[in-house]
Amino acid sequence: MSGLNGKQKIEHIQEEPEYKREYLLDVDAPIFIGKIFVIDDETHSTMLLAEEY
Predict the structure, then answer these.
(1) How many domains, the chain?
(2) Does 2 have pLDDT greater than 80?
(3) Helix, coil or strand: residue 18
(4) Calpha distance 30→32 (Å, rounded)
(5) Per-residue confidence (pLDDT) for residue 45, from 0 to 100
(6) In a domain, 33, yes or no
């Protein structure tokens, strides 16, 4: 994660309704680098790593 100087970036994007927000957290080292898909059908929420989708 070059250029973030001790920060972990979290980017929340959704399609419906359209939404985008970014968070920067102070950390010693990046906690996670990757993408997680979250699918919500109103009764269940499923989280998948991008390679599982």
Answers:
(1) 1
(2) no
(3) coil
(4) 6
(5) 96
(6) yes
d(CA 8, CA 1): 8
Instruction: Name the amino acid, one letter, at 33.
Output: I
- Residue ranges making up the domain that contains 28: 7-52
How do residues 6-36 score in pLDDT, each as one tens digit?
888 999 999 889 999 999 999 987 688 899 9
Ramachandran region of residue 38, left (φ > 0), alpha (ψ -120 to 50) or beta? beta
Buried b / exposed e over 9-35, threshold 16 CB at 10 Å, is eeeeeeeeeeeeeeeeeeeeeeeeeee
Mean pLDDT computed over 40-50:
94
pTM over 0.85: no
Q: Is residue 2 part of a domain?
A: no
Q: Is residue 34 part of a domain?
A: yes
